[in-house]
């Protein structure tokens, strides 16, 4: 120890070697470690059902539990369902759920903005490879000038370990 | 003091085995950072155009000559009129008609808001009409459809002369 105290360089070299070894040990662990990235999959799409335009438009909302509400001059005609998703990841990890908005279109150049509301903003993952489910609601804003048609679109769901 | 010197002073107190243990801890720390993954969701909605309903014809019973006893005048959806006993009926009657516009191919429900309507001469005299339609649902072929409304007018005994008018309303909704 006395020699070490007067010769710090071998010790420093040992630290860097250890750190390097850490990287070597750590790298292959990423591939097989259950602590790898979580995954999210869609089990059921969000369906706002059918709505009839009227007046100056309004908003249609499907809650994460599937309840439907319309405002303004819109008439909700039903047929809605909340979306369903599942996260798979390492047990006991806390994940945050982030959802992007979407522009739905009818394939003819007409667009409709949608924002989404997950049932959970964060979630503690259960053990094993169990799918951790959550649901997704959303809100559409329709102007009175919107054109009739079938609209659809995609959005991103990001899950991240906290 | 540089960082290197700081590390040097700390490390002299540790054996190589201890350094190895620190390495293992660092390795675990290295493989459990925050990870994220993205997936796609899809959303869909079907938008129907607003329904418009316009009256295409009035329910018109024609000109009626009352009698000393009450009776009825019926106008079918076809426009055919049945003049009650003792009454005189003139002019050409018409059934009520409505034109519906909406999204092509959609089915709409049709209903009368009330089964009766009251006609008044603007004074104190009135008559009631029983309304009916055989149309309960309508397919908007080509984005439009039509339906008729029949009526039976209840004419009182020695009904006062005059021009009697009234209103009724219908409801049309997507199903």
UniProtKB/TrEMBL annotation, chain A:
Residues 1-31 form the signal peptide. InterPro entries: DUF4402. Pfam families: DUF4402 (PF14352). Keywords: Signal. The keyword Signal applies. This is DUF4402 domain-containing protein.
């Amino acid at each position: 120890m006395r020699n070490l105290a007067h010769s710090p360089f071998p010790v420093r070299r040992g630290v860097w070697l250890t750190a390097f070894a850490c990287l070597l040990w750590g790298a292959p662990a990423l591939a097989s470690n259950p602590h790898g990235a979580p995954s999210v999959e869609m089990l059921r799409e969000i369906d706002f059902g059918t709505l009839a335009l009227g007046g100056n438009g309004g908003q249609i909302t499907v809650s994460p539990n599937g309840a439907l509400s319309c405002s303004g001059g819109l008439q909700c005609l039903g047929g809605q369902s909340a979306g369903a998703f599942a996260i798979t990841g390492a047990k006991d990890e806390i994940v945050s759920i982030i959802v992007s908005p979407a522009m739905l279109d009818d394939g003819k150049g007409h667009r409709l903005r949608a924002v989404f509301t997950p049932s959970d903003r964060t979630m503690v993952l259960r053990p094993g490879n169990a799918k951790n489910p959550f649901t997704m609601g959303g809100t559409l804003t329709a102007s009175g000038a919107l054109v009739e048609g079938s609209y659809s679109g995609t959005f991103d769901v990001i899950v991240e370990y906290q | 003091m540089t960082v290197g010197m700081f590390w040097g002073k700390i490390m002299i107190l540790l054996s190589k085995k201890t350094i190895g243990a620190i390495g293992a801890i660092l390795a675990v720390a290295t493989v459990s950072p925050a990870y994220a993954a993205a997936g796609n969701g899809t959303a869909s909605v079907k938008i129907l155009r607003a329904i418009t309903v316009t009256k295409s014809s009035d329910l018109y019973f024609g000109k009626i000559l009352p009698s000393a006893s009450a009776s009825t005048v019926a106008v079918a959806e076809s426009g055919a009129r049945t003049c009650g006993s003792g009454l005189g009926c003139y002019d050409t009657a018409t059934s009520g008609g409505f034109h519906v516009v909406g999204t092509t191919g959609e089915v709409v429900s049709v209903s009368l808001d009330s089964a009766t309507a009251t006609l008044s001469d603007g004074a104190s005299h009135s008559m009631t009409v029983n309304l009916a339609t055989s149309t309960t649902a309508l397919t908007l072929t080509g984005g439009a459809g039509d339906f008729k409304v029949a009526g039976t007018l209840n004419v009182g005994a020695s009904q006062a002369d005059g021009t009697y008018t009234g209103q009724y309303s219908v409801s049309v909704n997507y199903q």
